[in-house]
Structures are given as structure tokens and as C-alpha cells.
Amino acid sequence: MGMELNRRNFLSATLSAAGLVAMGPLLSACGGGGPSRAGVNSESGLKAVLPAYVPNTSIKPDIASVAGGPDVMTDPGFLGYPSNRVATVSGVPGKGGKYSAVTPLWGTIPPADNSFYQAMNKALGVQLEMKPADGNNYNTIIPTMTAAKKLPDWIQLPGWWNPNFNTGGLVGNQLADLTPFLSGDNIKKYPNLAAIPTAAWRAGAWGDKLYGIPSFSTGFKVAGVVFYRRDVLEAKGITADQVKSADDLMNLGKELTDAKSGVWAFDDVYRYIYTSFGAPLKWKVDNGKLVHLYETQEFLDAADWHRKLAVAGYVHPDALAGDNAGGNTRFYGGKTLISGGGQGAWNLADLQSGQAANPNYRRGAFNFFSADGKSAPRVDMGQSTDIISYLNINLKPEQIEECLAVANYLAAPFGSAEYTMVNFGVEGTHFTMKDGVPTPTEAGMKEVQAKTYPFLAAAPSVVNNPTGDIVTKDLTTWQAANVKALAKPVFWGMNISMPQAQATAEAAQPVEDTLKDVIHGKKSVQELKDAVTNWKSSGGGDRLIQWTNDNVLQKFGTGQ
Amino acid sequence: MTLPAVVLLVVFNYVPLFGLATAFQEYDPLAGVWESTWAGLYQFERLLSDSLFWGALKNTLYLSFVQLVLFFPVPIALALLLNSVLSERIRNFIQSVVYLPHFFSWVLAITIFQQMLGGAGAVNHFLRSNDIGTWDVMTNPDTFALLVTSQVIWKEAGWGIIVFLAALAAINTDLYEAAAADGAGRWRRLWHITLPGLRSVIVLMLVLRLGNALTVGFEQFLIQRNAVGHDTAEVLDTFSFYYGIATGDYSYGAAAGLFKSVISLLLIWGANKLAHAFGEDGLYRK
Fold it and tell me: Is the complex ipTM higher than 0.85?
């Protein structure tokens, strides 16, 4: 303001600053608020633009997919690795364009401009500058780019961070609309993209327009699984099918906990088990009335069950102290025997880590059950994928087509020549074939093993663990046994983008905090009920339910 | 010469002050500071009517007070003890060992505490195998203040002695000899020479600590929030983080932060006046 600030006029300066603050409400005329958000996907609007689906039949899986309800199916399984690598893309997809791409990476970032990137650029026919960023801090890196409006040409935005990144507000403002290029039969120009199931394209669709390119789409997306040490439990004569109800699981706690030898039955499993009590993932419609998870009795029952587990002393003290990072270490070391996690934990790396601790290590998973043991088990499924990439709105149509051709190459099916290149690199330089299985060389470990290109576009998810076929067999068997339990929740695939006030109410931090205390045995269920009542009245909960009812349920239905 | 430091200060400390405007808005990160709607004192009204905020403030003041009483004298005592050690080698060795934990991150420090004192830790393992009841200290909300203070003592007391050792070294050794010649014992020399010599430094550190009363720490409470429950472990900085940044409610977090800064400014000013009353220079003197 250019005022001279010294002792004499400090007081008057403070007063005028205070005056400015009081003027605040008058200033509300300035500043028009943010860009509008994309709204919700409607069933009819979306059906008109969704791409055609042309499945790929050239490579047959060893373990076939098993279908469940609509859009539900298990992932196909492959044992070993195909020796005959079919080429699905003829020629070079690119025309020499130059692009930058940012993806998250949970691992060591490969050196820039390495031999793998150079080989990929040659195969793709573009200069694609890959700039992977730290996955653990990705949610703090992206907002700085979007606030500065400096997104790269191609960016990956994980679906679980949609509220944080405000993806609904970015589409159409900073991210390109791909509907003219991919809707309906237009996608047949890109056969590998056409082989991605329609459900996956919904995940990247906003306001009835296509924006995102999906990777790793699956028909078996669940929030989590309750795992157990199969080797340890089977040695005691316990098998997965013996656990059919919440009480059965609680009794296992008594049987398996031996605090004196440092073994506790459970790690923190609440997140992976609450839906077994009949609680919805987030929303439910009861006789046409919209009900939020927190309002249901099942939510309280599930929290109470876990509270009893903690109070009885069946949960490992480190888990009760909030140490989630050490969960896998406890599991491998046999200090906890029952743990929760996503399906991504069940893979070759897990087998190798576990066997390093105990050669008999074998991961198993309990089947989904219903808490009372009588009704049919039902689990809400998540959207088809959370790994979605978007193109920058500033790209010209020819550039978008070039990027889509590159995406077509990257989405080549499992076992094809392109898939091998993207995931393993150049034979001889980055991997060699050992026992019919691609084994990374040292250069391959450093440059290729970290997932960079597949996060831009990738074929539908398959289960494959070369040298660890038992994992593939266990996982596919488990999926097949449980496929009937999966069902679409209310608002599935509708990609709702809501105003900030509603988004904050949805995060419901105070309720989540109290919930954590209850499941760790520190608070009673009554206090959780009080927290929910508080959330509904002063935490914006009732307003959230009202907004969702008026703007989503009434206008667009349940999306079933 | 000082230009790089000045640039650093301006860029990281003064330029971000511009962001304080978000505390008076309903900030939308996509719209930026210029385009977001203004909300006057709405965020502050929300803040002052939020019982969780008052809980966080109460915790912050309580923990600050406990640390002031229990932690503050420890570096002084430690410095005095260390100063009386005759052997140079032993003194250097102890000094290095004692200030090493300052360089650990809080994640490491709390992991160590958890591995030693946690429910599955070394101490409880010993108690359990001897059929003595377990000592649940890492997850007990009632003793949390003491736990936190002991963690701070373990980690920071060693570092704090550096300032006091320097002050002790500045005291004229002739005074000790003269006092000893006059028949003053060890405790009298401590009371009449050492402590008055340290007085200005103690008062300065006290002023700084009072001014920082609202900053009890962040990572330490973030990590242990789940262990003891959020009503016990919530302090102003974690409140700002969880209810502001983590839920995308940036304006609310900014309002909490601004509130904290204004109160801290008043505290420093008050503490400095107190220092002047003691006859010391304090932080600054006009």
C-alpha cells in the first residue's frame, strides 16, 4: 500500500487494515468464484457417447474369466509367459510429435533420458518425455500445476484423488474432450483401446463426455480383502471356508492370539470388513429415500464388532497405535495372522518378500461373508479403474490423434510384442528369457520395472506372476469363488463432482476420527452416534444428503 | 553478502504472506486467490464456533504448559551437570551422544518409543513373559502429556544445552575462585554466580518459548494422533492440517493459522515486556 510504517502511525495503520477486513463483505462483488464443475454422468447421455467394445481374441488366457452380475467378471489368469508374442500394431504409431507426460510412481524414479525411454521413443515414433513424480506426494504436486494452469501434454490423475484434484472442474477447462475421437465406432481406429471394456471408459467420463483413458481396467474391483497366513492357519487345520460369519472371525481371534509369544491374530481390518455387515460403500437407497452410510445401523454394528475385537486384545498393539506402514512387515514376520489390504498386495513381489521371512509363506484370503452368516454375501464394487490419464486441452486435433495412436500401442494386450516392450524393454538389453519367463537385467531393473508408460494407457488387468504361478492360481480361484457377491452400488460410474462445501462435508473428518477411536477400542459406539449427529447438523452432513438427493438421485437416478 | 539470505527470507517468508488473503475468502484452488469469492470474517466465525477448534487450542496450551514446567529446566540442569565434568574427553563424548537425537526425524523417534514401550515392545514383552500386567503407555490418553514431554526431553534436551554451555563458558572463572576463597560451597556458588550469569540467556529462551506457546509441534502429534485419539492429540497445527488442507477446506485452515499467528505475536510482545520487567533485554529493546 506504500504507507510509511513507523511507531507513530502503526496504530492508524492497524485501524485501516481492520477497516479493510470489515469491508470484506462489500468486496464479495469482486471475484466471480471458480470455474463451473462438470456435473454428473446421466445414463442416456453417457450411452450415446461410450465407445464400442471389440474384445481382443488373439491371445487366450490359461485361466479364463468367470462372469458374475452386470459388468462383473474375474481377471483372466496367465501362467508363465507366452512364447509367441503377437504384434497387434502395424508400423509406428507416431509422426514425430513432441510431448511431455507426468505420471505417479511408487518406487525409485528411473534416470531421465535412459536407454529404455530412447528405445520406446523409437518404437512409438514420438518424442515422449516421461516425467514420473513421487506417488506418495502426488496429491501435493498436482494442485500446484493445476493452480498455475501448467499441466503437461499428458497427465495421469488417479481416480481416488478426484475430489482433491477437483478433476470434475479441470475437465473442459484444462483437460481435452476426447468424445469426437473415441465415441461409438470412432474408437475402432484404435483396436487395442476398443478392447477396453465400456465400464472402464465410464471412469474417465465427466458430464456425459469422454475425457480419460483408462489403464488396468477390471471387472473385480473391491475396496479390500481380508487376508490370512494360509500356511500358518492350514497347519492348525483352519481353512477359509470355515469362516462364514462375523462371529466365526471373532472366534479365530481367540484361537490364534498368543500375546506371550508375540503373535496377535488381527491387524486393523475394519476398512476391509465393514461392508460384510450390510453397510453400503457410501450411499444406499431405501424405498426411494437416499441414505448415507453414517445413518445406517450396519455402520454402527461393524464399528462395534471391531471395537470388541480390539478390547478383547486380539488386535496387534502396533496396529492399535496407528502404525499402518508396518502392517506388511508384521504379516510376513507372523506377528499378525489376519490382515486387510487391496488385491494389489497379492502378487509376485509379496510372495518373494514373504518367502524371504518364511519359506512356507502363502497368502490366502477369506471369502466374502455376511455378518449374520445367513444372508447371501454382498460387496459393493468400486468403479472399473482408478488409473486414468487425460490429455491437455491445448493440444490440436492432429496431436490428440497422435497421442491416441500412442495410447493404442501402450494398451496392447498381455503377451503381445508391444506389451513385452512396454513392460520389459528390449530383449537382451533390459531382459533375458530364463525358463520361458522374461527376467529383468540390471538395466531393466533400473529403467523398466518401475511402472511409467502403463500408467498412461494399459490393457485390461490380468493376473500374471511369472515364477510365482501359485499366486496366480490362488488369486483367480478366490476371485471365481467370490464373483457372485459383487454388485454395483448406488451412483456407480456416475462421476459426481460436487461444490467444495459438499466435498468437505463428504470427507467428514470428525466422524472418521471418532470412528478410528471406536475401532481401536477407545470410545463407545454411542460417541460415534453423537459424532454422526453432530456431522449431520453442524458438519454439513444434512446439506450433503440434500444436495446429493436433489442434484443426483432425483435428476439422474441410481445409475444401476 | 547478505543478499542471498535476504532473497531466501523474502521469497519463503514474506511473499507467502500474500496467501493470508485466503483466510478471508472461500478459496477455490482452481480459481486462484484473485477469482475466489470473498467471505469477510465468515471463516473466523466458523472457527470460533467449532468445538474441535477449542479442543485443539486447549490441548495446545495444556501441552505447552506441561512442557514449559517439565522440559524447560532440563537443558539448564544438563548443561550445569556437563559443565562440572572435569575430563574433556568424557564431556565431549556425552555431549555428542546427548544431542544426537535432535537430528533424528520424529518418525524414527516415535518408532523407537513404540518398539521399546509399545504394547508389543521390549518392556511389555518382558512384563508379559513374567506374568506382570502390561504397561499401556503409548495409547493411554490420560498420560499423553507426560509421554509427549518425555519424548521431547529425550530428543531435544541435548540440543538445548548448547546455548547454555556457551553462556556458562562466558562466566568469568575468577568469580568462582574468589567465592571459593571466601568459603562459598558448591551450591552457594551455583546460586550466586552461575545462575545469575545464565540469567539473561534463560530469560531470552523463556521469552522465545512463551512466544512459541502455540507451537507445540506437528509431526509428533500427527504420528500419534491415531494412537491416543484425536481429542487428546489434536493441536492447532494438526487441526489446521486435518480440517483445512486435508479436506480441501483451505480457507478454514488459513483462518486457523492466521488466528494462531496473531495470538503468538501478542504472546511474544507480552513476554518481551515481562523480560524488561526483570531488567533483561529480552528479544529486543527499543
Answer: no
